[in-house]
Design goal:
Length: 379
């Protein structure tokens, strides 16, 4: 079955699309990527989404217009990836604008902005969406959802295998080895902390809006890491919290950046923007390395997402994750901007097959569930 996956992450920089063909068993599908495309959001739309994702109050009319704009951007991304309309089904994550993990007192909730019937009608194709809701209703985090698809698409190797996505947030998957006493261990996964959220906001702040991100990590490469401050940051509650855990721009957004810049001014008065970017880059690598040290230690770390193009960040990862082979996921045939879109194509196919797509070992839900809701076009 040909399925189109659409994904826009916490960075809100655009939509990644993958058209894939899935066959065989649901648990261990045969799959092939047919085409892919990355479509940036218009600058004004991205800015509106980032402000909304950090709690800016909006009237109802503005929320409606934002949902329409996101849905139309998803449709445009789908057409670029699949201009001939080969897809028989679409899996669309939508744009997260607020994520509230569960607590002991309160069930979690998560809002992915999308008008799914509008998208289905525009593309004349069924759309599976709202993938987090079922897991949240069962007491789970609702995220991350990609570890289940990692296990199905990539499988195991000679030891524990880790996959890291460096999008707006850094999140990990740990896959058990193919053989030995741990081969039946559960798949693990969680959000480690910030990746590009703080870096992009800092770059925009320091450049007066002229730069949306630190291309290649070149700016950070000229700065000095304040290692003692990075270690202090690592002692914060979220970084010390045991999985299951998930987070987003609600925690690691503009207010958090300003707090960290105040911390930096206290320990290094008169620091340069490059020093701040260097220290924030080091924080991302350090929180991943700290999580990996808690075990089981993987034999390799496969990295995907926009952060793979940040040479300084990748260098920090290799330096801090000694003993682990760090390499791009692209070496296994899944490009940086394909992994999560491919995952939501698979989750949509699982929905069609009524295959449970969530992992309680990752999200903490009471049980696994079939994920997503389906919107059909009126033909």
């Amino acid at each position: 079955m040909k399925v189109l996956g659409l994904m826009s992450g916490t960075s809100a920089d655009g939509v990644d699309a993958v058209l894939a063909d899935f066959r065989g068993s649901a648990a261990h599908p045969r799959w092939r990527i047919l085409s892919s495309a990355a479509t940036p959001y218009p600058v004004e739309l991205r800015q509106r989404l980032i402000r909304a994702g950090q709690g800016e109050p909006l009237p109802a009319a503005a929320w409606l217009e934002l949902a329409e704009a996101v849905s139309d951007a998803q449709a445009e991304a789908a057409r670029r990836c699949d201009p001939e309309g080969q897809a028989q089904l679409i899996g669309c994550h939508g744009q997260t604008v607020w994520h509230r993990p569960p607590t002991a007192e309160r069930q979690g909730a998560s809002w992915q902005l999308l008008l799914a019937p509008r998208l289905a009608q525009r593309l004349s194709c069924p759309v599976v969406h709202d993938f987090r809701a079922a897991d949240l209703a069962l007491g789970g985090q609702g995220a991350p959802l990609v570890p289940a698809t990692d296990a199905a698409l990539l499988g195991s190797t000679g030891g524990w295998r880790a996959l890291l996505n460096l999008g707006g947030i850094a999140n990990l998957t740990l896959l058990p080895p193919a053989a030995g006493p741990e081969r039946l261990a559960a798949v693990r996964g969680w959000d480690c902390g910030p990746a590009n959220t703080l870096l992009d906001l800092a770059c925009q702040r320091f450049s007066g809006g002229q730069k949306g991100f630190d291309a290649g990590g070149a700016w950070a490469a000229t700065g000095q890491v304040q290692q003692e401050l990075v270690e202090h940051w690592l002692s914060e509650a979220y970084f010390q919290q045991a999985p299951p855990k998930s987070t987003g721009r609600e925690l690691f957004g503009g207010d958090d950046l300003e707090r960290r810049l105040r911390d930096l001014e206290e320990v290094a008065p008169g620091h340069s923007p490059a020093d701040a970017l260097a220290s924030l880059t080091a924080l991302t690598a350090a929180c991943v390395a700290q999580d990996l040290r808690r075990g089981p230690l993987p034999v390799e770390l496969l990295v995907a997402g926009g952060g793979t193009r940040n040479t300084t960040l990748m260098g920090e990862l290799r330096r801090r994750c000694r003993g682990v082979r760090v390499r791009p996921l692209a070496e296994l045939g899944i490009a940086d901007d394909q992994r999560e879109a491919l995952a939501f194509a698979l989750l949509a196919w699982w929905h069609q097959r009524r295959h449970r797509g969530s992992l309680p070992s990752v999200t903490g839900a009471r049980q696994a569930a079939v994920l997503g809701l389906r919107a059909d076009p009126t033909l």
